[in-house]
């Protein structure tokens, strides 16, 4: 609490993505379209799964949760970024900065855990199909989702505590377009090496552990597919390849950003745009364009709406 009482900085100033106003307008238009499509795409998946009875399975239950997380994750940073692209002076209050940092890590960590759970779900479905209904029943699915939100909250609280315990008395310029732990702690009026290492250890351990668990599960799945029929292999590979694409798009930037104590923020900004703007947009496209069940369900719901 002493560190918080010494805080003199009341707001932070973002440098944003660029100082070229023409490029800012182009980025504003591009990211506005991407954000609207992200909201519509993920909302469409959630509505389709909720109102389609035959999609009430563990895989689609987790997919609807992924869409919800993506919708929230992009909403933490993108609206503020769009506002900044239109303003000459891009500011955020200290409290709002900490809130943005907290929710950013909450949703990012929840997505990491959810993608790991989805890999486990596919592992059970493909490698132990006879036990799937008993292992992945609705009670277990709800417990796993509760656990991922609990884990994400604990992780986010740790990151937020490590950040707010530091004194901030100036400067207050963040070389980014949103508040994240690495650029914020750089502004603390004290040595942050130990705090930085604790933050990297916390985020890096979660990202790398979950990523290794994912890779291991997919290796086991690929080995087990040799015993499947040609049609079984095709369906399993289609589902798993879509999931692995999402994993690669999300884990790659996370591991790049949060496993290094020292960063080049100009490079980090490009990578951050990818996982805060592009990945939440790609997820619904990957899962709907490659999934016949979801496409047919959307078509069916549209026809019911038309004829009702």
TrEMBL record:
CDD domains, A to Z: 7tmA_OR4E-like (cd15940)
Major localisation: membrane
Sequence intervals crossing the membrane: 25-53, 98-120, 140-158, 206-225, 237-258, 270-289
Domain G-protein coupled receptors family 1 profile stretches: 41-287
One term under GO cellular component: plasma membrane
UniProt keyword Transmembrane helix, yes or no: yes
Membrane topology: Multi-pass membrane protein
Pfam families according to UniProt: 7tm_4 (PF13853)
Function per UniProt: Putative odorant or sperm cell receptor.
Protein family membership: Belongs to the G-protein coupled receptor 1 family.
Protein name stated in the entry: Olfactory receptor
Organism: Mustela putorius furo (European domestic ferret)
């Amino acid at each position: 609490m002493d560190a918080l009482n010494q805080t003199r900085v009341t707001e932070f100033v973002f440098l944003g993505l660029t100082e070229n106003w023409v490029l800012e307008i182009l980025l504003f238009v591009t990211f506005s379209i991407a954000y609207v499509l992200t909201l519509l795409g993920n909302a469409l998946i959630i509505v389709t799964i909720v109102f389609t009875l035959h999609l009430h399975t563990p895989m689609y239950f987790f997919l609807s949760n992924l869409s919800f997380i993506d919708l929230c994750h992009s909403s933490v940073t993108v609206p503020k970024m769009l506002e900044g692209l239109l303003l000459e002076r891009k500011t955020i209050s200290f409290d709002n900065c900490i809130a943005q940092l907290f929710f950013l890590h909450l949703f990012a960590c929840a997505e990491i855990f959810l993608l790991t759970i989805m890999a486990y779900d596919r592992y059970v479905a493909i490698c132990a199909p006879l036990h799937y209904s008993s292992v992945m029943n609705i009670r277990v699915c709800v417990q796993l989702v509760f656990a991922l939100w609990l884990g994400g909250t604990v992780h986010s609280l740790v990151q937020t505590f490590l950040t707010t315990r530091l004194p901030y008395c100036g400067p207050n310029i963040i070389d980014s377009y949103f508040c994240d732990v690495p650029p914020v702690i750089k502004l603390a009026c004290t040595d942050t090496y130990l705090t930085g290492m604790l933050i990297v250890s916390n985020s890096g351990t979660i990202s790398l552990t979950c990523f290794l668990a994912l890779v291991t599960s997919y290796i086991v799945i690929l080995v087990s597919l040799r015993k499947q029929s040609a049609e079984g292999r095709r369906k399993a590979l289609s589902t798993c390849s879509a999931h692995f694409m999402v994993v690669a798009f999300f884990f790659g930037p996370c591991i790049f950003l949060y496993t290094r104590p020292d960063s080049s923020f100009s490079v980090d900004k490009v990578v951050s745009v990818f996982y805060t703007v592009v990945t939440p947009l790609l997820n619904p496209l990957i899962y709907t364009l490659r999934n016949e069940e979801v496409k047919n369900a959307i078509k069916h719901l549209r026809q019911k709406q038309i004829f009702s």
